[in-house]
Structure formats: C-alpha cells, structure tokens
Design a protein that fits this description.
heterodimer, A: mainly beta, 4-stranded antiparallel sheet, B: mainly beta, globular
Chain lengths: ~110, ~110
C-alpha cells in the first residue's frame, strides 16, 4: 500500500499569510493526487486535481505542485474562509490513501 | 448539477448488517467509477471501496474486505454499499464520491453500538 505522509498536522496562521502543506508518497504516484478542504460537519471539497490543476470555481490563491513522491498545496494569502482541515489523496493505485490531514487554525 | 444523495445510515448492533444507497443525478451515471469514503468521528478520511462504471470491477480496503460489498444499478442511477458483520470501528459518516473525488454526497452516519 502507498503511504501518504502529510505535514504539518496542524498550523496556526493569520489572515494574509502564505501557507504551505506537504504530502509525501511512499512510492511514486505520478500526478495522481488531489487536495481537499473540509469544514466541520461538511463533506470534503476538492481544490486541486492532477496535483496542480485548479478545480473549477476554486479561488486562484490555492495552488498545487509536485509529481512523483513530493506534493505541495499552497495558499498564497490566507482568507478567513480558508480555516479548515486539508487532506491529500492518492488515486494512483488501490487502495487509495489519504494523508492524515492538516488543520489550519487562526493565530 | 451533479447531486449525490446517500441514505440508509442509522444505528445497528455489532455483528449486524446495513445497506447504504447513493442516488445520483445530473450526470451520466454509468460513465463514471464511483467510490465510498468514510470518516470516523473526529478522525481523518478513509477510502473503503470503488467500482467501475459498468460495475464489473471493484476494489476494497483491507479493513472492510470480505464484509462489505459495493454494487451499482445503472438503470436506477444508484450506488450501494452492503455492510455485514459490522463492528464498533465501522462507526463513521459514509460518503458517496464520484470518480477521483470531484463530487461528494453529504454523507450518511452509521453508528455500530449495542
């Protein structure tokens, strides 16, 4: 099984900050990775697919990069509505695996 | 507009069975693989099963293999998850997810407890 190691597990940031979250795959997954945002009591929402493609309707302050084993989600200027938990998901091979999640909190 | 509406969750005793349904609309259901993902209370996301568009290929997480069965009825635009031998650790919100995660249902809560 492919393990997805996501870091950090949590972070505190201020509005306007640049935020970076990383996922490392235990083996190469090409660009078969998505990033998801989840707010309490809600279903996850996909932000990025194919490691770097922005989902339609998602603000351009979100961006993704990487391929192979190292991936990054960047929020260029954190907004109040961005405080949430973020997950990566690899769908390169079964079983699909999620990262452990990163909770972004207000500083 | 793509819509996925799960149903069938509830309280079940350990060792019991439950069948979840996901009614899909707004897209050509048979053209897309479908998945079930769950989230235990206060925990992260866990993929548990996928099925191809035609329904002839399916995959399972080790934690549910042999106990859960994914299926679909393309004539009814509905995805199913039959769950047997339920355990306390199966308690979670179960989400129906289209293809590689573009669309998610609102989830249905399954509680396994005596």
């Amino acid at each position: 099984d492919i393990q997805m190691t996501q870091s950090p597990s949590s972070l505190a940031a201020s509005v306007g900050d640049r935020v970076t979250i990383t996922c490392r795959a235990s083996q190469g997954i090409r660009s078969d990775l998505g990033w998801y945002q989840q707010k309490p009591g809600k279903a996850p929402k996909r932000l990025i697919y194919g490691a770097s493609s922005l989902q339609s309707g998602v603000p351009s302050r979100f961006s993704g990069s990487g391929s192979g084993t190292e991936f990054t989600l960047t929020i260029s200027s954190l907004q109040p509505e961005d405080f949430a938990t973020y997950y990566c998901l690899q769908h390169s091979s079964y079983p699909w695996t999620f990262g452990q999640g990163t909770k972004v909190e207000i500083k | 507009e793509v819509q996925l509406l799960e149903s069938g969750g509830g309280l079940v005793q350990p060792g019991g069975s439950l069948r979840l349904s996901c009614a899909a609309s707004g897209f050509t259901f048979s053209s897309f693989p479908m998945n079930w993902v769950r989230q235990a209370p206060g925990k992260g996301l866990e993929w548990i099963s996928s099925i191809s568009g035609s329904g002839d290929t399916s995959y399972y997480a080790g934690s549910v293999k042999g106990r859960f069965t994914i299926s679909r009825d393309n004539s009814k635009n509905t995805l199913y998850l039959q769950m047997h031998s339920l355990r306390a650790e199966d308690t979670a919100v179960y989400y129906c997810v289209r293809d590689w995660g573009a669309f998610w249902g609102q989830g249905t809560l399954v509680t396994v407890s005596s």
